[in-house]
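#struct-help
A.M.: can someone run this one for me? Single chain, 273 residues.
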Amino acid sequence: MGTENQVPLAILGMACRVPGADGLEEFWRMLVEGRSAIGEVPADRIDRELYYDPRRGQRCKTYSVLGGVIDYRAFDASACPVPPKTLVSAEVGHREICQVAARACRHAGMDPFDLPERNVGVYIGHNLGGPVAGEIVYASLVRETAQYLRKIGAFREAVAGREDAVIEEIIRHVRSRLPRRGPTGLPDGFIHLAAAIISEAFGLTGPSMILDAACSSALQGLAMASRALRLGRIDMAIVGGASYYHVDSQIIFSQAQSSSAKGSCPFDEGADG
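D.P.: on it. C-alpha cells below:
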C-alpha cells in the first residue's frame, strides 16, 4: 500500500460547462471576480404555481426556486464521436457531458475520435441526466393516479357518466409521448449512461461507472480513478461530474432541508441549506 500511494499521477486535460461559464477561462474569471451564477430557475424548468411554497415542510413542494442551469445547444457530431443510434435517444445531460469529455481530451492534445489508449476508465459523479427518468415514472403510474378523479364531485358532474372514457383518454394522451425508449427497447433514463455513453463513443474498454454520493460524487469518482490507476488496472481515466436540474430533485432536497432559499454558500455562517 505504501508503494501504491507514492505512484505519481498527472492531470492531462480539463474542460467544463457550468452555469455562468462555457469553459475553463470563463470559469476561472468568474471565481476570481467572486461571481455566482446561481439564481432563480427559469419558468420552463419549474412550475412555481404547482410546486413552490415558501413555507418549509410542505408536502410535494419546494421552498426554493434557486438553481444553476445552462442552455443546452445542438449536439455537434463533428466534435464528439457519439454513434447516431445512441444520440437519438440519449438524455440531454448525457450528450452534454460527452461533449465536455471530448473537449477535455483536446485540451490534453488528444483526438477523442482516436485516443492513444483504450484501457481507459470513466468515472462520473452524477444522479440525473434529464427529464426522462421522471417521465417514465409518470407514465407508469398515470393509470393509478387518474383513478383519483373519480373521487372529485366536480369531475363526475362535468363528464356526466363518461368517467371511464375520459380517464382512458387521459392515460392514452400521457402514454402516447412517454416514456421514450432507446435502440434496445429499454428506457434511456438510466443514470449509468452518463459514463457508458463516453465509453461507447470513444471506444474505451476500461470500466465505466457513475457515483452518486450527493455533493461529493465527483470527488468519489476521482478517488476511485486514482486507485485504479495506481493499481495498474487502467492506463488512463476520464473523471467528471454532471447534474441536471429537475424539480423532482429540488423537492427531495427541500424535504431534507438541504436546499437554500437565499443562495448562501454551504460553509457560510448564514447558510440556510
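A.M.: thanks! The chain has a mean pLDDT of 86.
D.P.: also worth noting: Strands lie at 39-40, 66-67, 120-126, 208-211, 236-242.
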